[in-house]
Specification:
about 45% helix, five-stranded mixed beta sheet, about 20% strand, about 600 residues, Nucleotidyltransferase, domain 5, single chain
Length: about 600
């Protein structure tokens, strides 16, 4: 992917946090990265930095396009990046030596539940919160919760029978007030479970009352000049306020689901697909659709969902959508979530669909706004001539001769609506005798494109023939012989009324005389005519030299050319003295030339 390619999309990229993927032409993911600001991060790959690693430059060069997924927070970007790297194993990502997952807070399913940090999610009925990207921050939160609600941390089986039998004794944790002693029946199950309920509320994000309580405690410590305690409490409160209890991209309450959403206008639609396996997003994809007049969003989703699921081999038993749909697969549950983690997943999908639609609209507006005069003219020409492709490469042919003498032809080349002088070519007509424009055109067109084909050079999108139907027909004969008549657009332009002729169409096209596209055609025609006339004059001059000067014994072509360049013409050379001629060609040549011209006068 080049810097110019990136510039076309740079202004439309979001500034949200997210995950981006560099993808090659075979749709293989080369690299997965995260970003706090997607636009800034991606722009950094295409700047002028010279210290970028060779591996990074190679990855960017091999990429065909970029895809990205917007998420809510930087932590979500980190989690999604980790999941996608483990799933797709991109070639240019640094692989971790271990396969550790992120930490969760687990509330065990048992009497007098323990609250602990774990990396393993075991679906045994326990309640999990997370994941969390910072284990240090997580430990601060857990310490704060235990200060609020003293809990046991032992692994004893605290059944009613064991407690009644007095099998356990309180430990040091009880004596330092970190536990209320449920192992000896010093705390009843109801009060312990009430603390667990409050902890769950806090971990779900309902902790406004807790924050208020700790602010009051901080104030009390400060008033009592207990600044160290106040500072410790402030640090824990800061961690508590920054705490994120939910991640959109990884969930412990969701198993395998497919998420679909749609954003559309009157002409187009974008369907976003998120694939979730074991509670983690492992793939995202946005599909663009062209809408017919009678298509609505419901029809488009019902049509597209089976196709996308088959494409990505999804067997998820549940599909999340924004509204009720009909599906032919009765074994798949269709859900329209209203609250909870599933609703958040759907909102994330909707956000990505809307942004891709907005990006397309920005790109179209940017193209119109930033269109150069050349782009505008070429697109107008494309529309006027009903061409499939924009005529970035145009070639124009013209013939030149005087009563059949020195027949020559020219081919001028325009690229991006501007003359490309280094690509101009002229031809000495070899197979035609006498004034025959049709045969001359047939020969030079054949020679020009035979050579391009032999050298594997690109063909022009548009060929202009200076002349009417006859010259156009002759050019088409050559193109048909070469088998490329259907690969290029060919027109002829007649000088009298500036009519545009198409092959096998008797009715000419009349383009508005003020049109920029017609002016470009005329410029190419005039340039071909000028180039042909100039070449023809040079040929006549060479022939004239050949008959006048080079026939003088001892005068070669180089000497003759030098004399003509100095004196301007043979007439002025005749009027020059021997001394003047000697200054240019030497005394010996001057004597021969003077003797020759004197002999003609006799």
């Amino acid at each position: 992917m080049t810097t110019d390619d990136f510039k076309l999309i740079a202004d439309t990229l979001p500034k949200d946090p997210g995950v981006y993927r560099f993808i090659d032409k075979n749709e293989t993911i080369l690299y997965v990265g995260k970003a706090k600001n997607l636009r800034n991060r991606l722009t950094s790959y295409f700047g002028e930095r010279q210290d970028r690693a060779h591996r990074t430059r190679l990855m960017v060069r091999n990429a065909h396009h970029i895809e990205y997924t917007i998420v809510e927070t930087e932590s979500d970007a980190l989690l999604l990046e980790s999941t996608l790297i483990k799933k797709h194993l991109p070639r240019y990502n640094v692989m971790l030596k271990d396969d550790k997952s992120y930490s969760h807070i687990c509330i065990k399913k048992e009497r007098f539940p323990r609250v602990m940090i774990t990396r393993r999610v075991i679906r045994d009925g326990s309640t999990y919160f997370g994941p969390y990207t910072s284990k240090g921050r997580l430990k601060d939160i857990l310490d704060l919760i235990k200060q609020l609600f003293p809990l046991r941390n032992c692994s004893f089986l605290l059944s009613e029978e064991n407690i009644a039998a007095g099998k356990f004794k309180v430990c040091l944790e009880y004596h330092i007030k970190n536990c209320m002693g449920p192992c000896e029946g010093l705390e009843d199950e109801a009060s312990y479970n009430e603390k667990i309920s409050q902890i769950k509320n806090i971990l779900r994000g309902n902790f406004s009352a807790v924050v208020q309580h700790f602010k009051q405690e901080m104030q009390r410590h400060a008033e009592n000049l207990e600044f160290e305690k106040a500072q410790q409490l402030k640090a824990k409160l800061s961690a508590f306020e920054d705490y994120q209890s939910k991640s959109t991209v990884v969930s412990t309450t969701i198993r395998d689901v497919d998420v679909f959403s749609i954003a559309s206008t009157d002409k187009e639609a974008y369907i976003n697909y998120i694939r979730v396996v074991n509670g983690a997003i492992i793939h995202t994809h946005t599909q663009e659709l062209v809408k017919n007049l009678d298509d609505d969003e419901r029809d488009l989703l019902e049509y597209t969902i089976p196709i996308i699921r088959e494409r990505f081999s999804s067997l998820a038993p549940e599909i999340l959508v924004p509204f009720e749909l009909q599906t032919a697969d009765t074994e798949v549950a269709i859900t329209v979530p209203k609250i909870g983690d599933k609703k958040k997943l759907l909102e994330l999908s909707e956000k990505n669909a809307r942004y891709h639609l907005l990006q397309k609209q920005k790109q179209e507006a940017s193209k119109t706004k930033k269109q150069t005069p050349a782009e505008r003219i070429l697109r107008t020409l494309q529309e006027d001539l009903r061409m499939d492709a924009v005529p970035l490469h145009i070639e124009c042919f013209d013939n030149s001769n005087i009563q059949g003498s020195n027949p020559v032809s020219s081919c001028v080349v325009f690229k991006n609506a501007k003359p490309s002088n280094k690509d101009y070519r002229h031809f000495n007509v070899k197979s035609v005798e006498g004034p025959n424009d049709f045969a001359s055109m047939e020969e030079v067109v054949f020679r020009r494109y035979r050579r391009l084909l032999d050298e594997n050079q690109p063909l022009p999108q548009l060929i202009i023939i200076d002349g009417g139907k006859g010259q156009l027909g002759a050019a088409m004969d050559s193109l048909r012989k070469l088998g490329i008549a259907d690969r290029v657009t060919v027109i002829g332009i007649a000088k009298r009324l500036e009519e545009i002729f198409f092959p096998d169409d008797p009715v000419p096209l009349l383009i508005n005389k003020k049109s920029e596209s017609l002016k470009l055609i005329q410029q190419a025609r005039n340039e071909a005519h000028r180039f042909a006339i100039s070449f023809h004059r040079n040929q006549r001059s060479r022939n004239f030299l050949g008959t006048e000067l080079t026939h003088i014994p001892g005068i070669g072509e180089k000497t003759a050319q030098k004399l003509l360049s100095h004196f301007g013409s043979v007439k002025k050379l005749r009027a020059a003295t021997a001394a003047q001629i000697a200054e240019v060609a030497g005394m010996a040549a001057a004597k021969r030339i003077v003797t020759h011209f004197e002999g003609e006068r006799e």
